[in-house]
Design goal:
Aminopeptidase; four-stranded antiparallel β-sheet
C-alpha cells in the first residue's frame, strides 16, 4: 500500500477526485443502497485524506471539514474503507491519521462527527462520546459524537 495523502480541495487532481468519488459511491450509494447527493458542496471546504493500494485503487478515505461548515467544530466525515480491506485495521489507521491531521490543521479544537449508529463503538474506542439523540440521515440511523 502507498502512504497517506492529504490534499485541500484545490490541490486534488481530477484523477484523485474521480477515484475518491468512485469509492464513496461504491460504498455509500451502491453497497448501502442509499440514493443521495454525495457531492454536497462540503468537499470544497474540506481537507481530504486517502490511501491507495498497490494497484492504485483508493482503499480508504475521509474528509476533514472546516469549523462552521457542518458544525461549530471541525468535523470528520465520509469515513470509508474499500470492502476488500475491511477488518484489516485500515479503518483504524485512517482515523488515526485523520485525528493527527485534525490536530495539525485545527490545534486544540474538539472534533465532532455524525456517526452511523452501527459504528458508534468504533468511534468510542477512538475517544469520541455520543452527544444527543439518534437521528436519521439518508434513512440510516446516526448519532453525533464529540472528541475533546
Amino acid at each position: 500500500m502507498t502512504g497517506w495523502v492529504w490534499r485541500s480541495f484545490d490541490e486534488l487532481t481530477a484523477d484523485e477526485l474521480y477515484d475518491i468519488f468512485v469509492l464513496r459511491q461504491t460504498v455509500f450509494v451502491v453497497e448501502q443502497n442509499c440514493a443521495y447527493l454525495d457531492a454536497d458542496g462540503v468537499d470544497r471546504r474540506s481537507r481530504h485524506l486517502y490511501k491507495r493500494d498497490e494497484s492504485g485503487r483508493v482503499i480508504a478515505y475521509l474528509r476533514l471539514v472546516e469549523p462552521g461548515v457542518k458544525y461549530d467544530e471541525p468535523s470528520i466525515g465520509r469515513v470509508i474503507t474499500h470492502p476488500s480491506v475491511r477488518r484489516t485495521g485500515v479503518g483504524r489507521e485512517l482515523m488515526g491519521e485523520g485525528l493527527r491531521g485534525a490536530a495539525k490543521y485545527f490545534p486544540e479544537a474538539a472534533i465532532r462527527i455524525g456517526a452511523q449508529r452501527w459504528a458508534e463503538n468504533f468511534y468510542r474506542s477512538l475517544g469520541f462520546e455520543s452527544m444527543g439523540r439518534e437521528y436519521m440521515e439518508d434513512d440510516i440511523p446516526h448519532v453525533e459524537m464529540l472528541r475533546q
